[in-house]
Amino acid sequence: MAKLSLGSTFSIFHSRHIRPPLAGCHVTEMTVADHHPSLEVVGGARDRFLPSLHTNLRLPYNPFPLIAWNRHVETIFASFFRSIPQVRLRRECLRVKDGGSVALDWISGDHRRLPPDSPVLILLPGLTGGSQDSYVRHMLTKANGKGWRVVVFNSRGCGESPVTTPQFYSASFLGDTYEVVKHVGARYPEANLYAVGWSLGANILVRYLGKESHACPLSGAVSLCNPFNLVIADEDFHKGFNNVYDKALARALCKIFKKHALLFEDMGGEFNIPLAANAKSVRDFDEGLTRVSFGFKSVDDYYSNSSSCDSIKHVKRPLLCIQ
Q1: Interval 142-197: pLDDT, tens
Q2: What is the CATH number of the domain that holds 221?
Q3: Which of 21, 144, 241, 252 ranks highest by number of CB atoms within 10 Å?
Protein backbone atom coordinates (compact mmCIF):
# COMPACT_ATOMS: atom_id res chain seq x y z
CA MET A 1 0.00 0.00 0.00
CA ALA A 2 2.28 2.73 -1.17
CA LYS A 3 1.69 6.37 -0.53
CA LEU A 4 3.69 9.24 -1.94
CA SER A 5 3.31 12.77 -0.72
CA LEU A 6 5.09 16.05 -1.09
CA GLY A 7 3.99 18.73 1.33
CA SER A 8 2.91 20.82 3.02
CA THR A 9 2.40 22.91 -0.09
CA PHE A 10 2.33 19.88 -2.36
CA SER A 11 1.24 16.28 -1.80
CA ILE A 12 0.83 13.15 -3.90
CA PHE A 13 -1.00 10.08 -2.63
CA HIS A 14 -0.75 6.81 -4.55
CA SER A 15 -4.23 5.65 -5.45
CA ARG A 16 -3.78 2.22 -3.85
CA HIS A 17 -3.29 3.71 -0.39
CA ILE A 18 -6.47 3.11 1.60
CA ARG A 19 -6.12 5.80 4.24
CA PRO A 20 -7.77 9.19 3.64
CA PRO A 21 -5.66 12.34 3.15
CA LEU A 22 -4.67 14.30 6.23
CA ALA A 23 -7.48 16.38 7.67
CA GLY A 24 -7.59 19.99 6.62
CA CYS A 25 -5.79 19.48 3.29
CA HIS A 26 -7.30 20.68 0.03
CA VAL A 27 -7.19 17.83 -2.48
CA THR A 28 -7.20 17.95 -6.26
CA GLU A 29 -7.21 14.74 -8.30
CA MET A 30 -5.39 14.28 -11.57
CA THR A 31 -4.37 11.43 -13.84
CA VAL A 32 -0.86 10.67 -15.11
CA ALA A 33 0.80 7.62 -16.66
CA ASP A 34 -0.79 4.16 -16.40
CA HIS A 35 1.74 3.17 -13.74
CA HIS A 36 0.29 5.84 -11.46
CA PRO A 37 -3.40 6.04 -12.47
CA SER A 38 -4.49 8.53 -9.82
CA LEU A 39 -2.59 11.18 -7.91
CA GLU A 40 -3.95 13.64 -5.39
CA VAL A 41 -2.25 17.02 -5.40
CA VAL A 42 -2.52 19.10 -2.25
CA GLY A 43 -1.74 22.80 -2.00
CA GLY A 44 -0.57 25.37 -4.50
CA ALA A 45 2.84 24.10 -5.63
CA ARG A 46 1.69 21.78 -8.43
CA ASP A 47 3.05 24.07 -11.15
CA ARG A 48 6.47 24.09 -9.52
CA PHE A 49 6.94 20.44 -8.61
CA LEU A 50 4.56 18.39 -10.70
CA PRO A 51 6.35 18.67 -14.09
CA SER A 52 9.54 17.07 -12.77
CA LEU A 53 7.62 14.44 -10.82
CA HIS A 54 5.49 13.65 -13.86
CA THR A 55 8.67 12.94 -15.82
CA ASN A 56 10.45 10.96 -13.11
CA LEU A 57 7.43 8.87 -12.13
CA ARG A 58 6.84 7.49 -15.63
CA LEU A 59 8.91 4.35 -15.06
CA PRO A 60 6.98 1.52 -13.39
CA TYR A 61 8.02 0.02 -10.08
CA ASN A 62 9.17 -3.55 -10.63
CA PRO A 63 9.16 -5.37 -7.27
CA PHE A 64 11.68 -8.07 -6.49
CA PRO A 65 10.33 -11.43 -7.76
CA LEU A 66 8.79 -13.95 -5.34
CA ILE A 67 9.03 -11.85 -2.17
CA ALA A 68 7.06 -8.72 -3.06
CA TRP A 69 3.65 -10.30 -2.43
CA ASN A 70 3.94 -9.75 1.33
CA ARG A 71 5.44 -6.87 3.30
CA HIS A 72 6.61 -9.17 6.10
CA VAL A 73 8.46 -11.41 3.65
CA GLU A 74 10.12 -8.33 2.13
CA THR A 75 11.19 -7.08 5.56
CA ILE A 76 12.60 -10.41 6.70
CA PHE A 77 14.36 -11.05 3.40
CA ALA A 78 16.02 -7.63 3.53
CA SER A 79 17.08 -8.16 7.15
CA PHE A 80 18.82 -11.47 6.52
CA PHE A 81 19.90 -11.44 2.88
CA ARG A 82 20.41 -7.85 1.75
CA SER A 83 24.04 -6.91 1.28
CA ILE A 84 25.68 -4.24 3.42
CA PRO A 85 27.80 -1.91 1.28
CA GLN A 86 31.34 -1.49 2.57
CA VAL A 87 32.06 2.19 3.16
CA ARG A 88 34.84 3.88 5.09
CA LEU A 89 33.27 6.30 7.53
CA ARG A 90 34.77 9.14 9.53
CA ARG A 91 33.10 9.60 12.91
CA GLU A 92 32.54 12.96 14.54
CA CYS A 93 31.23 12.95 18.12
CA LEU A 94 29.14 16.02 18.81
CA ARG A 95 28.60 17.13 22.41
CA VAL A 96 25.23 18.85 22.75
CA LYS A 97 24.05 21.51 25.19
CA ASP A 98 22.82 19.23 27.97
CA GLY A 99 26.09 17.27 28.02
CA GLY A 100 24.78 14.42 25.91
CA SER A 101 26.52 13.14 22.79
CA VAL A 102 25.56 12.02 19.30
CA ALA A 103 27.74 10.55 16.56
CA LEU A 104 27.89 11.91 13.02
CA ASP A 105 29.32 9.48 10.46
CA TRP A 106 30.65 11.06 7.26
CA ILE A 107 32.04 9.23 4.24
CA SER A 108 35.80 9.31 4.58
CA GLY A 109 37.55 11.59 2.08
CA ASP A 110 34.45 13.54 1.03
CA HIS A 111 35.70 16.70 2.72
CA ARG A 112 38.56 16.72 0.18
CA ARG A 113 36.80 15.21 -2.84
CA LEU A 114 33.56 17.19 -2.95
CA PRO A 115 33.27 20.96 -3.52
CA PRO A 116 32.00 23.01 -0.55
CA ASP A 117 28.66 23.73 -2.22
CA SER A 118 27.78 20.05 -2.76
CA PRO A 119 24.31 19.32 -1.34
CA VAL A 120 24.38 17.73 2.11
CA LEU A 121 22.07 14.86 3.04
CA ILE A 122 21.46 14.11 6.73
CA LEU A 123 20.18 10.56 7.40
CA LEU A 124 18.02 9.83 10.47
CA PRO A 125 17.71 6.03 10.98
CA GLY A 126 14.78 4.30 12.64
CA LEU A 127 14.49 3.18 16.27
CA THR A 128 17.85 1.77 17.49
CA GLY A 129 19.23 2.16 13.94
CA GLY A 130 22.52 3.64 12.85
CA SER A 131 25.16 3.77 10.17
CA GLN A 132 25.75 0.02 10.49
CA ASP A 133 22.33 -0.86 9.05
CA SER A 134 21.97 -2.02 5.45
CA TYR A 135 19.12 0.35 4.54
CA VAL A 136 21.18 3.30 5.76
CA ARG A 137 24.30 2.12 3.93
CA HIS A 138 22.41 1.69 0.65
CA MET A 139 20.94 5.19 0.84
CA LEU A 140 24.32 6.58 1.81
CA THR A 141 26.17 5.01 -1.12
CA LYS A 142 23.46 5.83 -3.68
CA ALA A 143 23.33 9.50 -2.68
CA ASN A 144 27.09 9.79 -2.51
CA GLY A 145 27.35 8.31 -5.99
CA LYS A 146 25.20 11.21 -7.21
CA GLY A 147 27.61 13.76 -5.76
CA TRP A 148 25.90 14.35 -2.43
CA ARG A 149 27.77 14.79 0.82
CA VAL A 150 26.10 12.38 3.25
CA VAL A 151 26.17 12.21 7.04
CA VAL A 152 24.43 9.68 9.28
CA PHE A 153 22.96 11.10 12.49
CA ASN A 154 23.41 8.33 15.09
CA SER A 155 21.24 9.22 18.07
CA ARG A 156 22.36 8.71 21.66
CA GLY A 157 23.39 5.09 22.15
CA CYS A 158 22.63 4.09 18.55
CA GLY A 159 25.31 2.98 16.11
CA GLU A 160 27.74 2.76 19.06
CA SER A 161 27.21 6.46 19.72
CA PRO A 162 28.43 7.38 23.22
CA VAL A 163 25.96 7.95 26.05
CA THR A 164 27.34 10.63 28.38
CA THR A 165 24.20 11.51 30.36
CA PRO A 166 21.35 9.38 31.79
CA GLN A 167 19.10 10.14 28.83
CA PHE A 168 18.48 8.42 25.53
CA TYR A 169 16.61 9.94 22.61
CA SER A 170 12.86 9.82 22.07
CA ALA A 171 10.13 10.67 19.58
CA SER A 172 9.35 13.79 21.61
CA PHE A 173 12.85 15.26 21.90
CA LEU A 174 14.00 17.53 19.07
CA GLY A 175 16.96 19.17 20.80
CA ASP A 176 19.61 16.94 19.25
CA THR A 177 18.09 17.36 15.78
CA TYR A 178 18.22 21.15 16.10
CA GLU A 179 21.87 21.01 17.10
CA VAL A 180 22.90 18.53 14.41
CA VAL A 181 21.27 20.53 11.60
CA LYS A 182 22.78 23.75 12.93
CA HIS A 183 26.23 22.14 13.22
CA VAL A 184 26.15 20.66 9.71
CA GLY A 185 24.91 23.94 8.25
CA ALA A 186 27.71 25.88 9.94
CA ARG A 187 30.28 23.43 8.60
CA TYR A 188 29.04 23.77 5.00
CA PRO A 189 27.46 27.24 4.75
CA GLU A 190 27.54 27.23 0.93
CA ALA A 191 25.57 23.99 0.62
CA ASN A 192 21.85 23.25 0.59
CA LEU A 193 20.82 20.89 3.39
CA TYR A 194 18.38 17.99 3.01
CA ALA A 195 17.34 15.13 5.27
CA VAL A 196 15.89 11.63 5.03
CA GLY A 197 14.33 9.81 7.97
CA TRP A 198 13.05 6.27 8.44
CA SER A 199 10.29 5.16 10.80
CA LEU A 200 10.87 6.89 14.17
CA GLY A 201 13.59 8.98 12.53
CA ALA A 202 11.00 10.10 9.98
CA ASN A 203 8.58 11.00 12.77
CA ILE A 204 11.25 13.11 14.45
CA LEU A 205 12.19 14.73 11.13
CA VAL A 206 8.61 15.72 10.29
CA ARG A 207 8.10 17.12 13.79
CA TYR A 208 11.29 19.16 13.37
CA LEU A 209 10.11 20.46 9.98
CA GLY A 210 6.79 21.46 11.48
CA LYS A 211 8.33 23.18 14.49
CA GLU A 212 10.78 25.14 12.35
CA SER A 213 8.14 25.84 9.70
CA HIS A 214 9.18 28.86 7.57
CA ALA A 215 12.49 29.17 9.46
CA CYS A 216 13.62 25.62 8.66
CA PRO A 217 17.20 25.57 7.30
CA LEU A 218 16.52 22.40 5.29
CA SER A 219 15.77 22.82 1.58
CA GLY A 220 13.73 19.62 1.46
CA ALA A 221 13.20 16.28 3.18
CA VAL A 222 11.97 12.71 2.70
CA SER A 223 9.94 10.74 5.24
CA LEU A 224 10.05 6.94 4.84
CA CYS A 225 7.63 4.58 6.63
CA ASN A 226 6.67 7.23 9.16
CA PRO A 227 4.23 5.96 11.82
CA PHE A 228 2.74 9.51 12.02
CA ASN A 229 0.37 8.54 14.86
CA LEU A 230 2.29 6.73 17.60
CA VAL A 231 -0.86 5.77 19.51
CA ILE A 232 -2.16 3.84 16.49
CA ALA A 233 1.32 2.48 15.76
CA ASP A 234 1.52 1.12 19.33
CA GLU A 235 -1.86 -0.58 18.93
CA ASP A 236 -0.77 -2.11 15.62
CA PHE A 237 2.44 -3.41 17.19
CA HIS A 238 0.40 -5.83 19.31
CA LYS A 239 -1.50 -7.34 16.39
CA GLY A 240 -0.56 -10.49 14.50
CA PHE A 241 2.91 -10.74 13.02
CA ASN A 242 3.76 -7.19 14.14
CA ASN A 243 4.52 -8.69 17.56
CA VAL A 244 7.72 -10.06 16.05
CA TYR A 245 8.95 -6.54 15.24
CA ASP A 246 7.88 -5.26 18.65
CA LYS A 247 9.90 -7.93 20.46
CA ALA A 248 12.92 -7.45 18.18
CA LEU A 249 12.97 -3.70 18.77
CA ALA A 250 12.53 -4.24 22.51
CA ARG A 251 15.56 -6.56 22.53
CA ALA A 252 17.59 -3.96 20.64
CA LEU A 253 16.57 -1.23 23.11
CA CYS A 254 17.49 -3.45 26.07
CA LYS A 255 20.86 -4.25 24.51
CA ILE A 256 21.68 -0.55 24.14
CA PHE A 257 20.38 0.23 27.63
CA LYS A 258 22.41 -2.49 29.35
CA LYS A 259 25.63 -1.13 27.84
CA HIS A 260 25.03 2.12 29.71
CA ALA A 261 23.06 0.86 32.72
CA LEU A 262 25.51 2.32 35.25
CA LEU A 263 24.47 5.83 34.23
CA PHE A 264 20.92 5.03 35.32
CA GLU A 265 21.49 3.03 38.51
CA ASP A 266 20.75 5.94 40.88
CA MET A 267 17.63 7.12 39.07
CA GLY A 268 14.69 7.31 41.47
CA GLY A 269 11.18 8.68 41.27
CA GLU A 270 8.94 7.06 38.69
CA PHE A 271 11.78 5.37 36.81
CA ASN A 272 11.40 1.60 36.59
CA ILE A 273 14.89 0.52 35.61
CA PRO A 274 14.26 -3.26 35.89
CA LEU A 275 11.28 -2.93 33.52
CA ALA A 276 13.35 -0.99 30.99
CA ALA A 277 16.30 -3.40 31.24
CA ASN A 278 14.09 -6.44 30.67
CA ALA A 279 11.43 -4.95 28.41
CA LYS A 280 9.43 -7.42 26.33
CA SER A 281 7.92 -4.68 24.19
CA VAL A 282 8.74 -1.13 23.11
CA ARG A 283 5.87 0.03 25.30
CA ASP A 284 7.49 -1.62 28.36
CA PHE A 285 10.74 0.23 27.67
CA ASP A 286 8.93 3.53 27.21
CA GLU A 287 6.99 2.97 30.44
CA GLY A 288 10.10 2.17 32.45
CA LEU A 289 12.37 4.88 31.08
CA THR A 290 11.42 7.07 28.12
CA ARG A 291 8.17 8.67 29.23
CA VAL A 292 9.63 9.44 32.70
CA SER A 293 12.85 10.90 31.25
CA PHE A 294 10.87 13.37 29.18
CA GLY A 295 8.22 14.27 31.74
CA PHE A 296 5.11 12.51 30.46
CA LYS A 297 2.36 11.24 32.77
CA SER A 298 1.89 8.00 30.87
CA VAL A 299 3.06 6.16 27.78
CA ASP A 300 -0.12 7.15 25.95
CA ASP A 301 0.51 10.78 26.89
CA TYR A 302 4.04 10.43 25.48
CA TYR A 303 2.82 8.84 22.25
CA SER A 304 -0.02 11.29 21.64
CA ASN A 305 2.22 14.32 22.19
CA SER A 306 5.09 12.97 20.07
CA SER A 307 3.20 12.08 16.88
CA SER A 308 4.12 13.89 13.68
CA CYS A 309 0.55 13.80 12.32
CA ASP A 310 -0.07 17.03 14.24
CA SER A 311 3.07 18.69 12.86
CA ILE A 312 2.81 18.02 9.14
CA LYS A 313 0.31 20.84 8.54
CA HIS A 314 2.97 23.30 9.70
CA VAL A 315 5.69 22.04 7.31
CA LYS A 316 6.72 24.74 4.83
CA ARG A 317 9.52 22.91 3.04
CA PRO A 318 9.15 20.36 0.20
CA LEU A 319 8.49 17.02 1.89
CA LEU A 320 8.17 13.64 0.17
CA CYS A 321 6.43 10.96 2.25
CA ILE A 322 6.60 7.30 1.20
CA GLN A 323 4.61 4.81 3.24
Answers
A1: 999 999 999 999 999 999 999 999 999 899 999 999 999 999 999 999 999 999 99
A2: 3.40.50.1820
A3: 144
